[in-house]
Amino acid sequence: MSPVWFVIIAGVSALIAAPVTRAAGRFAGPLLALVPAFLFVSLLMQLPDLPVGTAILQSIEWVPAYGVSLGFRLDGFSLLFSLLITGIGTLVVIYAGSYFSDDAKDRGRFLGFILLFMTAMLGTVLADDLIMLFIFWEMTSLVSFFLIGFKHEDAKARKAALQSLVVTAGGGLALLGGIIILGLTAGTFSLTEITAQAPQIATSPAFPAIIVLVLIGCFTKSAQFPFHFWLPNAMAAPTPASAYLHSATMVKLGVYLLARFDTGFGEYLIFYAPLMIFGGITMLISAYAVMRSTGFKAVLAWSTVCSLATLVLLVGVPGEAGVKAMIGFLVAHALYKAALFFAAGQVIHSTHQYELARLGGLRFKLPITAIASLLAAISMAGVPFFLGYKAKDLFLTAAFDGGSWGMWLTVVALASSAVMTAVAGLAALKPFFLKPPYGEVKLYHNEYYGMALPPLALGLLGLAIGVMPAPAWNSVLIPAMSALYGSTIALEVHAAPSLGLKFLITLALLASGAALVWFWNRLYRDPDNVKANVVFADLGYGAVMGWLDRAGQVTARLLQMLSLRTYIAVTLGVSTLALLLALTGFSADMISAAAAEPVRPYMAVVLVLTLIGAAVAAFARSVLISILGVGIVGYTMAVVFLLNGAPDVAFTQFTVETLSIVILLAVLLRLSLKPAPQQSLLKRPLALAVSAGFGIAVGLGVLAMSVLPFDRRLSDFFGEASYLEAQGHNVVNVILVDFRALDTLGEIAVVAFATLCVWALLRRRVKKEG
Amino acid sequence: MTLLYALSVAAIMAAGVYLMMDRNIIRIVLGTALIATGVNLVIFLAGRLGPTAPAIIETGAYTLGEDAANPLPQALVLTAIVIGFALLALAAIVAYEATRALGTVNADEMIAAREEGNPFEPASREGSSARK
């Protein structure tokens, strides 16, 4: 199966999710889970075709003019990601089917979003073309918005959804900028080709800009400092979405893209130093924040931020050790964290209790969940014979090999590992195995199998890979490492721990984690500690959004003064100045030249009438007289047309002017209000100045126009072609209905729409009165 | 002669703008109508005046004679007149409806009435509360 089919099949399943759910009812979850399961198996079957160091490339032309194509790339790394996406996706769909068992409508909507999200994720990790990658990348942000705001009647959920969208889509814009500069510099959007010519790109002056923009995009997506705050808030999403998007897959996209860039640009300081610095800061912040969190999901969320930071940091570690540790930790984290979220969802769903502090003693009430949770926690804590142990072992190796960064890496690694061990104990053990501090926890319903078996599967998988490491490591993890590293990586994985310094450190970390759990109750009930949460919340985001709001208000007040007079004064004042500026090239001679022209006496009389009409219209005290003034101007114009060889125009003008006056008078008479006081001439200096200035400028413009050479080409063409090509004698008519027929159609449409509007307004009035 | 035409254009435009800056909404509508007329005249003048025979090809001839008026601006002005009329009719009816609904022909008062629902203005601003 070629890569594009994975995306297409996932996309179709998203489209049919809602109707299938309606039809299948309770079995919708397992039924729809067949799609990701099928994709998972198909991906596994690609393994033999994909020896270490190879990639399946597929390219479909899309926008060849801009060098954009639907380019797909399936190599060891994207295969690993795709397996995680479809594998955990299968479990999430089953889990969500149970999670929404009370509400069929929500279930269909949710499953549709989840499968749509899976499509976007597959598209992102299978993309070779960066533009295509970006489109799917943004699609994941959008679906994430809908899933965080899934409980849309909850104001907090809506706010969190908007926040995540602003942060991730804002970062997405930066990423797009980086991709476009990169594409222009490299002459291609293909990731494969860009990686191949990385040394040349690194010498271009645009290189720093590219790296900074791409880093911003990745940091927002993967919740790295200073954009770390959105992820804990995103926990407003239903738990299956938190497990899938905000822990196992989507938030790892930033890491994914960083790792892709690391293949080509990993040796450049400007690329890897920010990863180490910001990754390390994020690790410390989140490790501290997790100690201060009280919500079940909040603890898991902060620990996820910490894990993401670990991954970012490991991408930054140069050389083989970093890649090995990154892949190992990526897989281990995806398995145990999704399991812990699943377990948390089960606990919250059945107890309606969100606070970790109030939970305890559920081991017999939710037995399967308790076991799954235990398995996941042991893996997370890094106990030997579990996948998590190997991941931690590789992490420590990378930290010790870190060269000049070794000290920083070791400190951060140890600190965060200790806290993660504690979180594992806290999140997994406390609700189930510790005594409930405030008495028995009330259970609203028993364990749902649909929600208990998925975490159990993940927990057992972590144990299986730990005990029997060879199949998974050799066929999936090591090829992924090699694809990233660019050459084959040799790594022998044994189930049994190797004794030595690292083993001792692991034991010490376990002990310190246990100590933290033991003192947990005392630690976070301290009110000072709770207050400290504020430090890590979204104050900066709130401030920026507040400034944006205020800036918007100030601009709106400045520009939207709600006064037609001011608008006219500004626009026409500026236009007048511009016109006069453009006229500076013309001398006073043109006025004298125009004045010297012979005057047609009867025409002069007509134009004097026009002047009088205009003056009457402007200065009459009564609106009725003003209308008469406008009428005089209109009729004299008709005469002007008539006397200058335009009888058709003249007749139209006569008709229209008559109709206009009828309409205006009808409106005025029906209103029959007391006349509005008109301010006297001298009290309106601004109106007088603006209108006089504009009139003079336009008049001068007409004079200037008349001395410019005249281009007759169009008129001559119509004069010559009207009869020969369109068989019409009346040239004006031929132009209207033939040469410019589309214009005339547009004109008719405008009149039709105006008529419709007028009719709608008047009919409303008639109905009300009738 | 051009001087007189230019003077007329200036007068029509100035009168139109002056009316548009009035408070009475009916006068604002009149202003737009005047400006439309003034623009039509400018378009007409842009085709240059001179020959006064209509732009009609004589029977037996195949092309337009030398003494005929320029047909192009005439076609443009014809379209513009009709559109201007549609605009005037719509503006007049909207002004009428607004006046009936708000009980005033004063555009400033209409805006004040609208401002009561304006999210950018504090509710306690003078004017909005006085008119409640």
Map the helices and strands.
The complex is a heterodimer of chains A (770) and B (132).
Chain A: H1 3-24, H2 28-46, E1 55-63, E2 68-75, H3 76-99, H4 104-126, H5 130-148, H6 155-186, H7 191-196, H8 198-203, H9 207-221, H10 230-233, H11 239-248, H12 253-265, H13 269-292, H14 296-316, H15 320-351, H16 367-381, H17 387-400, H18 406-433, H19 449-467, H20 469-485, H21 501-518, H22 520-525, H23 527-532, H24 539-559, H25 564-582, H26 589-596, H27 601-619, H28 623-643, H29 647-671, H30 685-707, H31 713-726, H32 731-739, H33 741-769
Antiparallel strand pairs in A: 1-2
Helix pairs in contact in A: 1-2, 1-4, 2-3, 2-4, 3-4, 3-11, 3-15, 3-19, 3-20, 4-5, 5-6, 6-9, 9-12, 9-13, 11-15, 12-14, 13-14, 13-18, 14-15, 14-18, 15-16, 15-17, 15-19, 15-20, 16-18, 16-19, 17-18, 17-19, 18-21, 19-20, 25-30, 27-28, 28-29, 31-32, 32-33
Chain B: H1 2-20, H2 25-46, H3 71-102, H4 107-115
Helix pairs in contact in B: 1-2, 2-3
Protein name (chain B): Cation:proton antiporter
Subcellular location (chain B): Cell membrane
Transmembrane segments (chain B): 6-21, 28-46, 75-96
Protein architecture, described:
The complex is a heterodimer of chains A (770) and B (132). Chain A has 770 residues and is an all-alpha fold. Chain A has four domains: 1-222, no CATH class; 266-525, no CATH class; 533-560; 566-674 and 681-708, no CATH class. Chain A has 33 helices and two strands. Chain A has helices at residues 3-24, 28-46, 76-99, 104-126, 130-148, 155-186, 191-196, 198-203, 207-221, 230-233, 239-248, 253-265, 269-292, 296-316, 320-351, 367-381, 387-400, 406-433, 449-467, 469-485, 501-518, 520-525, 527-532, 539-559, 564-582, 589-596, 601-619, 623-643, 647-671, 685-707, 713-726, 731-739, 741-769; strands at residues 55-63, 68-75. In chain A, α2 packs antiparallel against α3, α14 packs antiparallel against α15 and α25 runs parallel beside α30 (685-707). The longest helix of chain A is centred in the first third of the chain and has 32 residues, at 155-186. Chain A is elongated. Chain B has 132 residues and is mainly alpha-helical. Chain B has a single domain (2-52, 69-131), classed as Helix Hairpins, CATH 1.10.287. Chain B contains four helices and no strands. Chain B has helices at residues 2-20, 25-46, 71-102, 107-115. The radius of gyration of chain B is 22 Å and the shape is elongated. The termini of chain B are far apart. At the A-B interface, α24, α25, α26, α27 and α28 of A face α1, α2, α3 and α4 of B.
